[in-house]
Amino acid sequence: MLIAGKACLILALALSVYGIAASVYGATRPPGPGAGGWTGGQWVASGRRAVYALAGVLLAAFAILELAFLRSDFSFALVATHSSTTTPLFYRLAAAWSSQEGSLLLWVLLLSLWSSLLLRLTWRRAREIAPWATAVLLGFAAFFSALIVFLETPFGQALPAPAEGVGLNPLLRHPSMMIHPPMLYSGYTLFAVPFAFAVGALITRRLDARWIQLTRPFTLAAWVFLGTGIVLGARWSYSELGWGGYWGWDPVENASLMPWLTGTAFLHSVLIQEKRGMLKVWNVGLVLATGILSILGTFLVRSGILESIHAFGASTLGVPFLVLIVVLVAGSIVLVAARAGDLRSEHRLDSLLSREAAFLLNNLVLVGLCFVIFWGTFFPLISEAVTGTEASVGPPWFDRYTVPLALVLVLLAGVGPVIAWRRATPRNLVRGFRVPVVAAAVVVAVLVAAGGVAERPAALAMFACAAFVLGAVGQELVRGTRARRAMAHESVPVALVSLVRRNRQRYGGYLVHVGVAVLFVGVAASSAFQDVRELRLSPGQRATVGGYEVTYVRPTAALRAASNGRLERIELGAVLRLRRDGRALGAVRTYRSYFPSQDPSLGAISRFFEGEATSEVGLRAGLTRDFWSAIAPDTAELRPRIARGDRVFAAAVDELPPAAWNAALGRALDGLVASYASDPPAATFRVIVSPLVAWIWLGAGIAVAGGLICLWPGGTRGRRVETAARAARVARDVREPAHV
Amino acid sequence: MPDLLLVVVVLALVVVVVTAPLRARAGAEEAEENAVRAELEAARDAKYREIRDAELDHRTGKLSEADWRSIDRALRAEAIEILRRLDDVTGAPR
């Protein structure tokens, strides 16, 4: 099946190139039949179908690869290096995108699927822009197809095929990792859609709100997918990486956050263009930047240009990606400059006291955040280029700039819903801000009175801002429901549901604001008030951390076999008993898993301790606080026995038949593990007690729910026009999808 | 051999799918929608949304009665202008 897979990739590249040529040729042809009797429309349709066919052949290629992983077909080099017969089926399915080659294939596959969906839904309504957007999307597809055809093919052959594979990187054996990369890549590839339409709109000079309306569902979907991917990555970091944090300002984390920030700015400012015909240059700039940052995100993960705990790529792709990014940046600048005259605003800002002004400020903060993160992420490269010495900035540097910006951002999330479009009078503002301000003041007063919070002014300010947002959104819901009840005489629940259903974008957006506020409360509380301790305990010993009494009850040690019976890993851990305020809270287990190395130069026993190792966190999570623990077993006392075992088994390899040798090795490992359990050395524990971590995941869930409400398709009642006098038509059309 | 067969089948399918519009009678594609009309319809929908948003802002206390009436009047005038232009394009009865 290797040949079939390779052929599909070559076909994908050919289809991409053909589709670009057909779309551009068809779009630039004068009306009427040309050579061969074909019209421009026919060529454009053929280019569009190239996108559908591209999705088909890439699906076939991906299916071939997945089948090879499922069957543990080690004649595929990728399967041999990223899976094994001991890798659980669940993770074998995800192993394809743990590799450089497989993830590039997934990227272009998702791009082709989203592009197909986009063209299927919109081509009739955007006949002028669509061919150019098709060409841009196929341009991306051609680039990624070329990478997997010429540089990083997923269909390389392992010669000779090994009997056993290396296995999946143990760090990636986490449920989040099944969906985290597809989510991120869906976000990146979906952001290519508004990028492509913006380029099409610029080329054809169709710079009204049409392209924005057509691509809004895709932009929103990109925002939801990328946001979900980022949070899943944070969750994986928290529960799998063994350092206890969910965000470390790592280059790869930052790379995914940057397009999300500019995408968020775009989703806000685009409303101003749609309503007022303003900010056209800004919006086009934002969407082009978001598309380019999405490519940059893929580049950072895949190129290995910056050191990262998440970068699973080598550096072979650096140059092609860099060339693509330069072309995209230069092309975008030239295109925007050439269309400057068509991008003039149709209106001016009526008042600084308006929702437009609040959105503008929100945009500046979001773009400012993106710039800070960009600067901090690329500082090692910048410093090396300028001074010749690579220097990097750490979390304190990022915190210094991002914390104040985040505070303003959350505050604006409360201001936006309360302030009116166009202009607000001071009287209306006082009326609108009364409840949110009181909510913030009450929260500050209660927290200060409770004590311990005032010493952390940034956290206190964040709690106040979040209360302001909750107050603002709550007030909006109450007032909207009241207005709806007055009009339709519905019960409160029915009126609330009707209100949201009829104004999905507005109230979905408000829910996103609530989610963001809740998330930032979690971030502020868990950062400012966490208690981190490194403990060295022997069984029976206890310590107190963050109000928890922690007792090291007993060690645990086990050999774990895969479903096929082969030894997969050794686990050394501990059972910890927890008490708080004199109350027993039960026990948590934490252990470290040691996966055997495939390095043949290592000894038979020591290879189990020289391979990859992962931490399984002992977590007791709650709505108010998390108890997090990770063990670092002390294997020093085992080392002499391991070395002796290596020598014994090296000598026995020629004396014992393989089956007997393996059985003896199993018994030796059993004995080693039993000796750790019966005579355990002191172990080091990293223990963290953090308040409100759960609020981060809860806030993210609320924000995603809000995004989905915005995405939910609405009716088409607003489009029913054609008869009667125009003024009456306006009145009726506006009234029909009853507003409140 | 199965590989080769699969490749041939996929290639044949791709050729059939991609060349279908070129094999069809010229002009068989649906009549092209007037781009100006599409643009005006987008503007009309956006204007309607703006009118409804202003009304909701008024009902939820963010706009005073006087401000809302003035904004609403201006927006409706703009909507009427868009409808006039739309009727010119579509040739609809006035």
Please, could you describe this protein's structure?
The complex is a heterodimer of chains A (740) and B (94). Chain A is 63% helix and 10% strand. Chain A is α+β, with helices and mostly antiparallel strands. Among the domains of chain A are: 1-168, no CATH class; 426-529 and 696-734, no CATH class; 539-681, no CATH class. In chain A, a hairpin with a 5-residue loop joins strand 3 (548-561) and strand 4. Chain B has a domain at 27-90. Helices cover 78% and strands 0% of the residues of chain B. Chain B has 3 helices and no strands. Chain B has helices at 2-23, 35-59, 65-90. Chain B starts with a helix and ends with a helix.
Strand content of chain A: 5-15%
Based on secondary structure, the structural category of chain B is mainly alpha
Largest interface: A-B, 71 and 59 residues
| Beta strands of chain B, count | 0
Distance between the amino and carboxyl termini of chain A: 59 Å
Multimeric organization: heterodimer
Tertiary shape of chain A? globular
Structural class of chain A: alpha+beta
Mean pLDDT of chain B: 80
- Helix count from the secondary structure assignment of chain A: 22
Features:
heterodimer; A: 740 residues; alpha+beta; five-stranded antiparallel sheet; four-stranded antiparallel sheet; 22 helices; 9 strands; 63% helix; globular; B: 94 residues; mainly alpha; 3 helices; 0% strand; elongated
Chain-wise SSE layout:
The complex is a heterodimer of chains A (740) and B (94).
Chain A: H1 2-28, H2 40-70, H3 77-82, H4 89-95, H5 100-122, H6 130-151, H7 175-204, H8 210-240, H9 251-276, H10 280-303, H11 318-338, H12 355-387, H13 395-418, H14 426-450, H15 457-488, H16 492-502, H17 504-528, E1 531-537, E2 542-545, E3 548-561, E4 567-580, E5 583-594, H18 607-610, E6 613-616, E7 618-621, E8 625-632, H19 639-652, H20 658-678, E9 683-691, H21 693-711, H22 726-735
Antiparallel strand pairs in A: 1-9, 2-3, 3-4, 4-5, 5-6, 7-8, 8-9
Chain B: H1 2-23, H2 35-59, H3 65-90
Helix pairs in contact in B: 2-3
